[in-house]
Amino acid sequence: MAGRLAPGARLPATRLLAAELGVSRGVVVQAYQRLTDEGLADARTGSGTVVVQDAAVPPRPAADRRRTLHELRLPLSTPDGIDLNLSPGVPDLAAFPRAAWLRAERAVLDRVTSADLGYGDPGGAPRLRAGLVAWLARTRGVRADADDVLVCGGVAQGQTLLAQVLRARGEAAVAVEDPGSRGTRDQLAHWGVRTEPVPVDESGLLVGPLHATGLNTVLLTPAHQFPTGVVLAPDRRRDLLAWAAGEHRLVLEDDYDAEHRYDRAPVAAMQGSAPERVAYLGSVSKSLAPGMRLGWLIAPRGMQAELLAAKHASDLGSSALPQLVLAELLASGDYERHLRTVRTRQRARRDALLAGLRAHLPQARVRGVAAGLHLLVELPAGTDDVAFADRVRETGVLAHPLSWHRLLPGPPGLILGYAAHSPDRLTEAAHRIGRALQT
């Protein structure tokens, strides 16, 4: 049926095949009879048993996987004809600390026990949870114990677990920033959670419209809003915490790239101000590599049991060895040294892209603080940013139109990820974008 034997091919004589396989001839005779009964072979006098003409199943049409990935707008899918993928969310994968990872992995393997490689705690390896608590307390102001940490397969799985628990509690909708991550909205929708847009301005999420939604849960990116790049202002933070103090209220804090702040230390996580009102999400996707699928969720203690049960039902627990290696990197200081190196590289790349945009798109305005792995370029009023992104794509540059990440109407823009390319390539990208704007 797979076509390995062409129509008309003769099968071995039953005696020969029986001897070759070390079975009785009767077994082979029965097998050949079954093939004949199913119409896959034909016993012909003088010719033995042959494969019939119609035995091969028509091949399945080839799946266009690359097109599917592009339609999902995944940042790592690069269509044909694109040599500069500026999709947001792509880190500098060439900077992955291979030597440090290998040292840490060897150290882990030297002392790992059989128990460490078992199913273990579905919430994560104790050593990693302890290391994360110390790291996040020092760098992000997070308040938690090791038992509060749930290690998961990136922020995406953390959002999935939260969506499942919220649905089980009767919460069928979540307020989200607008503009905000299209991927997050799609993720929640896949798990049956509707999203309600709340506008974002220069100071972050508008808390008044959040009240107007009547919803109990909001998901936001306060340290570096995606995609505008603004930081939630202190007065908005206070207002949001006051909103969260209401009964059954919950803030989902996606701290997706706070480690990449170039002009000063990032603002502290909101979770430290209200641990029982904020579920904190983070990962190594922007600091190490998204392919590691390592993240963490620190939720209010009142929902931790449900989240742990959902995690166990999902996959029994995250891969043990990468967890232990990350714990070793945290303990040795290699993770922090890697971040310092990456921040220096990314600041140079951001500066190069900014300089290129000033030279080739002087009429465009760049929004956001000096942080993260992307820029938002606001385009002249009246520009169709989707059509413009298509023109840019014709020059070999892939970028996201801001409209992809909006539910409410607003100014047009282009989101440009810069982490994966050298400064000279980013200058070339800015030149092509400027050329496209002039056509």
How does this model look, in words?
The protein has 439 residues and is an alpha/beta fold. The chain folds into 3 domains: 1-60, Winged helix-like DNA-binding domain superfamily/Winged helix DNA-binding domain (Arc Repressor Mutant, subunit A, Orthogonal Bundle), CATH 1.10.10.10; 65-90 and 337-438, Alpha-Beta Complex (Aspartate Aminotransferase, domain 1), CATH 3.90.1150.10; 98-332, Aspartate Aminotransferase, domain 2, CATH 3.40.640.10. The chain has helices spanning 14-21, 25-37, 65-71, 98-111, 126-140, 154-168, 182-190, 207-213, 234-244, 301-315, 320-332, 334-360, 385-394, 423-438; strands at residues 41-44, 48-51, 84-85, 149-152, 173-178, 194-201, 204-205, 217-220, 250-254, 278-283, 295-298, 365-367, 374-378, 397-398, 400-401, 413-417. The protein has an 8-stranded mixed sheet with strand order 4-11-10-9-8-5-6-7, with helices on both faces. Strand 12 (365-367) and strand 13 (374-378) form a beta hairpin. Helix 5 crosses helix 11, helix 6 (154-168) crosses helix 10 (301-315) and helix 12 (334-360) packs parallel to helix 14. It is globular. The two termini are 55 Å apart. The relative contact order is 0.13.
Give the CATH level 1 class of the largest domain.
Alpha Beta
Strand order of the largest sheet: 4-11-10-9-8-5-6-7
Shape: globular
The percentage of residues in β strands lies in: 15-25%
Structural class: alpha/beta
Family: In the C-terminal section; belongs to the class-I pyridoxal-phosphate-dependent aminotransferase family.
Domain HTH gntR-type: 1-54
GO molecular function: DNA binding; DNA-binding transcription factor activity; pyridoxal phosphate binding; transaminase activity
Keywords: Aminotransferase, DNA-binding, Pyridoxal phosphate, Transcription, Transcription regulation, Transferase
